[in-house]
Amino acid sequence: MKKKYKLSKKREKQFQAAREEFRNMRDLLLLNHYTLTFSHKPPKGKDTAASIHVSETRNRAVVRMSDHFYTCSPEDRRHYVIHELLHIFLAQMDYGVADLQNTMTFATWNIFYTNFHRNIEKAIDALADVLTPLSFLEERARKEQNIEQK
Ligand SMILES: [Zn+2]
């Protein structure tokens, strides 16, 4: 049977705020051609703050958030949001690499893909480190708001 994930009132409010944060950042990162949907189901792995599943064939992605995501500092949360969204840029590369699986033994594939995945995570984290504290994202948001108000 499919498990239902019911959120408390407080968590539901945080869930809505997180959706806003993800959508605003998606637009600031010029990913507004992507439709984001949000699941109440937490990500796999107890140390995972958030996860994103990017569709291989459509401009869609599903986001999940854990308790840690809601309770961490706003700066850390922003880092997680940017990190997850940056996965969208690299998702197609990931799908391309996955096609190699049938050309290798299981052991070789396992070593190769573990390394590949670790390096993707490292690169995304480094980019998120750079982007998170930058004010240019807010500046861009302000400019867009000014244009809308004119
Ligand atoms: Zn990641």
Q: Any descriptors?
A:
about 150 residues; binds zinc ion; mainly alpha; 5 helices; 3 strands; Arc Repressor Mutant, subunit A
Radius of gyration: 17 Å
CATH topology: Arc Repressor Mutant, subunit A
* Proportion in helices: 55-70%
Mean pLDDT: 90
Small-molecule binders here are: zinc ion
Sheet with the most strands, sense and barrel status: 3 strands, mixed
Number of H/I helices: 5
Number of strands: 3
What top-tier CATH class fits best?
Mainly Alpha
Class inferred from helices and paired strands:
mainly alpha
CATH architecture: Orthogonal Bundle
The total domain count is 1
End-to-end distance: 53 Å
Order of helices and strands: HEEEHHHH
Helix and strand topology:
Layout: H1 9-28, E1 35-39, E2 50-54, E3 60-65, H2 67-71, H3 74-98, H4 106-131, H5 136-149
Parallel strand pairs: 1-3
Antiparallel strand pairs: 2-3
Helix pairs in contact: 1-3, 3-4
Bound molecules: zinc ion (ZN).
Zinc ion (ZN) binds next to helix 3 and helix 4.
